Amino acid sequence: MGKTRILFAEGNDERMMEAAVHLHEEGFVEPVLFGDCNQIMAIAKQKGKQLEGIEIMDPSNISNEIKEQMVMEMIHLRKGKWDQAMCREKLEHANYFTTMALQIGLVDGLLGGSTTTTADTLRPALQLIKTNPTSSLVSSCFLMVKDEKVFLFSDCSLNINPSADELVDITLQTVESANQLGIVPKVGILSYSTLGSGKGESVDKMREVAKRLKRMMLDFEVEGEIQVDAALSKETAALKAPNSTIAGNINVLIFPSLDAGNIGYKLVARLGGYEAIGPIVQGLNKPVNDLSRGCTSEEVYKMARITAMQVSERKQQNSEESLDRLSTRV
Q: Which of these, 36, 154, 247, 265, is most buried using a 10 Å CB contact count?
């Protein structure tokens, strides 16, 4: 099995180049820069970046056969909503071309957004990559890191006011992300109430989420509804949730709304000194991740490594499913 190929959608961005050089030197991930080859090499020379050995995917150098394959696949995926002319027009845009490069297997994962909006990055993925069969929606999480402390916060960037059903799905997706990152998940379903101490529509929703999760055959522990202080502090947990086995040690925090999640992760980053890595996109058929336009080259590097982890986990799952199907037939 070859190295995991991660396509950098804005290959002419200096931060993308710097991250690609770092990854290439490490040798675990094969970075691929997308864009006009001459332009990328000119910018690299101007910025003093050595791109020797790093592949550049220039759409003008892609064969007509492959482009036609992309067009036919797009027509199939859009189920007649787009005709050939529209598909060819879409492929003139970098975000659609890179998405189709992932879809037909030219690369294993896609990372973009350093110079474009989240909508521009994810719209083609939602239209063409689509959600995986076990998901009803696409969500996101942030990896929050400070020294040896590591948490996952979800959903902080995509779903505005998810329903109980959607929050169950978001939780399962975030647990999968935790497993991909080597984190043993202890999940807290956050609220302004702890195990019945408060009332309200939001409390009812989060209590229902926790109830549904606890009825499932899970391989992780979940608590809720729970206040964030009881989720994180052993002393507070002893007072508010004395019978809980994970309160005070929770490391996966599920927020009731985008308001709460977005405010929460930014407060922890700004006032608590945590590094916020993400958003890590969850629920798609193939790994596509979005960068902030203010990202650093180090953040690009880390998100590329996370994308590669998602690829590896997906390949392992596919391999296990293939073995299961084979054993069933035998």
A: 154
